[in-house]
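Minutes, project check-in
Item: structure for the 88-residue chain
Input as provided by the requester:
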Amino acid sequence: MLKDLGQIEDAEKNALNAHRERAKEIVLHIGQLEVQKARLLGQLGEVETRSQEIAQQALSRLGVASGTPFNITADGKVQIVESEQGAQ
């Protein structure tokens, strides 16, 4: 059971209500940012998938075996990691 002890001042009540409202706005904004984040992550996944497709097409055209470790530089040079035995 709750017992009334008195009343807070109007300034205190107004400040508390304003802070509660601001907290609600912040939570809403965080929710919107989470949705935006999810959409951006989806777009990132699509970009990465397409990049891998382009790289695999290029590697196939160059005769690089599937599963071979590789690097493609910004200027378009394809580098593969050779095994110790293959380098001799």
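Outcome recorded: The chain has one helix and two strands.
No further action items on this chain.
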